[in-house]
Amino acid sequence: MLIVKKFGGSSVANRERIFCVAKRCAEDYKKGNDIVIVLSAMGDTTDDLMEEAKSINEKASKREMDMLLAIGEQKSVALMAMALQSLGVPAISLNAFQVMMHTTSRYGNARFKNIDIERIQHELDSHKIVVVTGFQGVNKYNDVTTLGRGGSDTTAVALAAILNADACEIYTDVEGVYTADPRIEPKARKLKEITYDEMLDLATLGAKVLHNRSVEMAKKYDVPLIVRSSLKSVEGTTVKEEVKVEKMLISGVTADKNTARISVLGVKDKPGVEFRIFNLLAKNNINIDTILQSVSEDGRKDISFTIAQDAMRETLEVLNEAKDSINVRKIEYEENVAKVSIVGAGMISNPGVAAKMFEALYDEGISIKMISTSEIRVTVLVEEKDADKAVRAIHAAFALGE
Ligand code: ADP
Ligand code: ASP
Ligand code: MG
Question: Is there an atom of ligand 2 within 6 Å of 41 CB?
Answer without folding.
Answer: yes
